[in-house]
């Protein structure tokens, strides 16, 4: 870990506290029902793993993989599905789990596709929300932290497939990605 490249924004302990809080809220909102939790790969996988352990409901897991960034730090706005869901969502309560909502374009695209598949409901949980960059009407129902307009890594989030393993959520210094 090169500490010269990052500044810690939220510690692993703060993240776990927030994930527990979100799990309680989701469990309360869906009490007596089951849930299909859909993780958006790759960034959400660590958050999703911790979150589903805090949801006290019967649930299924599935994943969707989309691409809108490539190796850039800014979304291209063009969304491609790389891996679709394995399960039908018809009549199910679907909770989309995303690591970070930035422009919201990817999330809006995914939500609109899933709504056409006749689920009972579709809600969104994200660990990090960056509303200052929103370019779409996609707004999460459950938010861990609202963050400033900084490039974030750690806890599953990456820059060019690096930094995912960091246990904290960190701001990546611009000198790393502005080379």
Automatic annotation (TrEMBL):
Family, as annotated: Belongs to the purine/pyrimidine phosphoribosyltransferase family.
Coiled-coil blocks: none
Subcellular locations according to the entry: Cytoplasm
Protein's UniProt name: Hypoxanthine phosphoribosyltransferase
Pathway, per record: Purine metabolism; GMP biosynthesis via salvage pathway; GMP from guanine: step 1/1; Purine metabolism; IMP biosynthesis via salvage pathway; IMP from hypoxanthine: step 1/1
Catalytic activity: GMP + diphosphate = guanine + 5-phospho-alpha-D-ribose 1-diphosphate; IMP + diphosphate = hypoxanthine + 5-phospho-alpha-D-ribose 1-diphosphate
InterPro entries named in the record: HGPRT, Hxn_phspho_trans, PRTase-like, PRTase_dom
EC number(s) reported in the record: 2.4.2.8
GO biological process: GMP salvage; guanine salvage; hypoxanthine metabolic process; IMP salvage; purine ribonucleoside salvage
Keywords attached to this entry: Cytoplasm, Glycosyltransferase, Magnesium, Metal-binding, Nucleotide-binding, Purine salvage, Transferase
Biological source species: Syntrophomonas zehnderi OL-4
Predominant place of localization: cytoplasm
Classification lineage: Bacteria, Bacillati, Bacillota, Clostridia, Eubacteriales
């Amino acid at each position: 870990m090169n500490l010269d490249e990052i500044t810690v924004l939220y510690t692993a302990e703060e993240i776990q506290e927030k994930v527990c809080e979100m799990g309680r809220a989701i469990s309360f909102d869906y009490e007596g029902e089951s849930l299909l939790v859909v993780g958006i790969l790759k960034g959400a996988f660590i958050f999703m793993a911790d979150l589903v352990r805090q949801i006290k409901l019967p649930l299924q897991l599935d994943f969707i993989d989309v691409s809108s960034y490539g190796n850039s730090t800014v979304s291209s706005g063009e969304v491609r599905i790389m891996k679709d869901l394995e399960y039908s969502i018809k009549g199910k309560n679907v909770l989309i789990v995303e690591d970070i909502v930035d422009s919201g374009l990817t999330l809006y695209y995914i939500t609109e596709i899933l709504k056409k598949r006749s689920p009972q409901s579709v809600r969104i949980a994200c660990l990090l929300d960056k509303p200052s960059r929103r370019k779409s009407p996609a707004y999460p129902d459950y938010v861990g932290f609202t963050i400033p307009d900084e490039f974030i890594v750690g806890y599953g989030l990456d820059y060019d497939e690096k930094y995912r393993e960091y246990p904290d959520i960190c701001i990546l210094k611009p000198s790393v990605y502005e080379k």
